[in-house]
Amino acid sequence: MIRDKLLIGALENVNLPELGITDLKIRVDTGAQTSSLHVDNIRSIKKNGKPWVKFDIHPNLYNVDEVVTAEAKLKDVRWIKSSNGTRQQRYVIETLFQIGNREWPIQITLTDRSDMTYLMLFGREGMADHVLVDPSETFICSGDNPE
User: Which residue from 53, 75, 126, 139 could staple onto 145, CB 3.0 to 4.6 Å apart?
Assistant: First the structure.
């Protein structure tokens, strides 16, 4: 039902608590199927015999010296068509996504988004039945709207 959905804008602040990330500015993109996160130094590791990935995140756009090292269970490896039309193989993780007063697990591909303005792109699969998007607004859930 529409009334059960959270209204979000084109830009929002979110938390990825299992990765140790809070107040991350994201771009909401209903044209993108999959959510993606900019990470560096992706490494495959094993934990209890299972495949995991370890990676670095720079959560603060204005302080590249701030680094969070995170680990997550590897969910999948997929071929993804990037915004420039090229196909690339990416690691996929599942992690808890928090926005406003809601949270749910989403799948995120790990990639190099260093040439993009926002470190995370929130795509349709992650939105699922949880949100409605007003593309004319920003920071509806976080109250950071500068207007």
Answer: 139
